[in-house]
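[Q] Does anyone have a clean structure-token version of this?
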Amino acid sequence: MNTKECRHCKQLIHAQARLCQHCKGNQSWFASQTDPRFQGVVLGAILLFIVPLFIWLFYMLPSANPSGAPNLLVSETSVRYADTPAGPRIFVLGRVKNTSLTDASRIWFRVDLYDASDRLLDTILEEQSGLVVAGSASKPFRVTAYVSPSPKDVKRVAVAVERARERGKYD
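[A] Here you go.
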């Protein structure tokens, strides 16, 4: 007869016993917290459920200082067009000024193209990756994109900051 020791009382029991006949202790691998497989299951549960939950909560909670969101203004814009084999390309240069005290990053610019009757022809939305504007400072920016309307049709260009985030520790 094959035997093994009970996990709890160390008495010899049948090798396939689920309960010890002496102490009535459960013999499954999940019953003993000293078993390394039990610790692996607990660690796996933490990694699979709890860590992603904290990451999700971190991004879903509002900022600790919602009034400190960056306030950005666009000024000194200039517009140039270039004809390329792929079609007309627009280049918008300007300065963005941060009027708040918090640093701004992940800045998205919106460029609206209008015709002579002030009808919207096209909109460009582009993020300036790597652009960080410190609080109470200004920096130059450039937006470039292919456009569908002809440069002759465009009579007015409006540039604004669509959205920006407060600079995080990884920006």
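[Q] Thanks! Anything notable?
[A] The longest strand covers residues 72-84.
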